[in-house]
Amino acid sequence: MIAKSTVNEVQVYRNSASVIRNGEVELKEGRNIIYIAGMTRTSKQEDFVLSFPENVKASNIQIVKIDDIDKDIERESEKLQKQIDEIDHRIETCNLLIELRKTNGDFSKRTEISIDAQERYMVALSEKIMELYKQISDLEDEKKKLIEKMEDAEKEEIKPLIMAEIVSGASGKVPFTLRYQETTGRWRPKYEIRYKSNDEPLEVSMKAQITQDSDEDWKQAKVTLYSGNPAVFQGLPVLDPVHVSIYVDPPAFKGRAKAAGAARMAVMDGACCEDEEECEEDGMDNGAPMLAMSRLKMDEAQVEEEETMSAYILPELKDILNGTDGNIVVLQSFSVPADYHLLSIPRVNTKCFLTADINEADWPLPTAYASVYIKDLFAGEIFVDPDTDIDKFSLSLGQDERITVVRTELPRKTQEALIKNQRKQIRASRIKLINNSKDTLKLLVKDQIPVSTDKAVAVDVIKLSDGTLNEEKGEITWELQAEPKNAVELELSYSLAWPKDKKLSERVVRS
Fold first, then answer.
1. How far is CA 415 from CA 114, 277, 423, 463, 506, in A?
2. β-strands 451-452, 475-482 pairing
3. pLDDT for the residue numbered 303
4. What secondary structure does DSSP assign to 201-257, as a single string?
5. Which residue, 60, 57, 59, is CA-closest to 170?
6. May I ask the CATH architecture of the domain 2-65+158-182?
7. Structure confidence at residue 231 (pLDDT)
8. Maximum separation of any 2 CA atoms in the chain, in Å
9. pLDDT in the model for residue 232
10. 150: helix, coil or strand?
11. Domain boundaries, given as residue ranges, for the chain
């Protein structure tokens, strides 16, 4: 016999799921050969666990296909096909009866029947034919349902079966439990971050999207989610150090290949002459906005800390449907204290970003994407990565248009010192930040100067406008207070000196 089982519990990990099924099998006293259905084609067939009560002994357990088992066992699809064939016969009979009654209703060659009798027959004929057509319609509906069941049965019959040899001390129904790993089950966290004002903490809701493609629905199952770690992603713009050194000509190539090779080397090394700057300036790409999650009130999960990960036990039984975009459930909600400021890195991006600095200890959840809302307005999507090597990490809450930023590169001044046989260039830029709002805003502004990696190249600071210099990275930081309807101006200048018979090489070092 083939014993069926139903999903009772699902333990979903970040990239797989443990499925626990329950069922029962009819045993006779003594030796029994049983077949248990329930495993999927996408399961790890080598990792299943089959459990019976202690008084039942099982042996010779293995995975088989339905084609390998006893031919005397009738398949479910075969039973359904017989029912479909029977319905086809009944439909055919109804059609024959309709034709027969229509033939009997032809009185063109039958003069012995009175007009009254003919009229009574025709009235009755209409009712009988309508009844037969109604029977055919009902049979067609029943056939359609049976065909759907047969297709489902055929899908089940190509799934693996577990064959077990069981010795039972008594006859009767015996319960069993089947556990296996489902490779298509997974979940991913998704945050919903809400900012109200600089005086209030961030409101954070951690949700989970659960998906599976096992070709069956997990109906009314107890669901527990276990935590994991996704890949790291940087959401805010970054100032990468610019290294300057003496430019070295690439190896010579013949003919057209020489020019092509030199062009490739120039792109790779970022080589440029002293009067040009080819450092790439990248804008921040926030990606396409995602649809806002529903704000319907949902019960949160029960959180339990286990030895190596957190467990989120979902309230009530859940339906995890096959092949959908996933069930959305709320795992945890909390408030996070944050230090807010506006971040501007005009060399990389002339936009300002509302930024929240958060203590890593105040964020107990794993890395994940987050939808950000500013006073209930969707502001975009970011990636939250609290797993840093520092005590605090920064979240970008989106672009802030209260500040207008203008960065201007001033003309470069180049001169040659004959005694030292050097060429010297002075570079300068101005940054103007205009506060268009009625509030005093806290600003963090960053810019940079090159970092020399060659003793022959000297970089000297001329003016920083009270900025703080990180000499290792060449990064300058200003912490400012922008008054309402006022502008703040900063000026940055530095000099570069190198042998005049050499070319200068500049390249951005990506983090």
1. 128, 17, 6, 19, 19
2. unpaired
3. 81
4. PEEEEEEEEEE--SSS-EEEEEEEEE---------S-----EEEEEE-PPPP--HHH
5. 57
6. Sandwich (2.60)
7. 32
8. 139
9. 33
10. helix
11. 2-65+158-182, 76-156, 186-236+284-340+350-398, 242-279+404-508
pLDDT for the residue numbered 108: 64
Query: Could you tell me where the DSSP H helices lie in 352-419?
Result: none
Residues 6+ apart with CB under 8 A from 299: 315, 316, 330
In the predicted model, residues of the chain with pLDDT beneath 50 are 229-234, 253-296
Rounded CA gap, 292 and 340, in Å? 23
Structure pTM?
0.60
Q: How far apart, in whole angstroms, are the C-alpha atoms of residue 503 and residue 496?
A: 12
pLDDT tens string 257-272: 333 333 322 222 333 3
Q: How far apart are CA 289 and CA 381, in angstroms?
A: 6
Q: What is the reported pLDDT for 144?
A: 94
What token pair was written down for 331? 């795992």
Q: Is 510 exposed, middle or buried (0-12, 13-18, 19+ CB in 10 A)?
A: exposed
| Whole-number pLDDT of residue 251 | 55
End-to-end CA distance of the chain: 63
In this structure, what token pair is assigned to residue 300? 């949160």
What's the DSSP call for residue 293?
Answer: P
How many residues belong to the chain?
511
Structure-block tokens of residue 420: 């030292």
User: Phi/psi of residue 168, each to 5°?
Assistant: -120, 140
Burial of 119 (C-beta count, 10 Å sphere; 0-12/13-18/19+): exposed
Local structure of residue 323 (DSSP, 8 states): T
Could you tell me if 173 and 56 are in contact, meaning their C-beta atoms sit under 8 angstroms apart? Answer: no
Residue the block writes with tokens 């995975």? 63
3-class secondary structure, 401:
coil
Angle between helices 115-157 and 76-104 (to 10 degrees): 170
**CA proximity to 369, closest of 287, 284, 294, 283:** 287
- Do 485 and 491 contact (CB within 8 A), yes or no? no
Instruction: Give the model confidence (pLDDT) of 225-247 as tens digits.
Output: 987 533 333 456 777 777 767 66
User: How far is residue 504's CA from residue 320's CA, in Å, rounded to a whole number?
Assistant: 61
- Cα distances (Å, whole numbers) of residue 464 to 288, 336, 411, 461, 484: 37, 35, 17, 7, 24
How far is 423 from 249, CA to CA, in rounded Å? Answer: 19
Cα separation, 376 vs 159, whole angstroms? 48
Interior/surface letters 393-430, b for 16+ CB within 10 angstroms, e for the rest: bbbbbbebebbebebeeeeeeeeeeeeeebbbbbbbbe
DSSP assignment, residue 277?
-
Q: Coil, strand, or helix at residue 115?
A: helix
Q: Alpha-carbon distance 339 to 359, whole Å?
A: 9
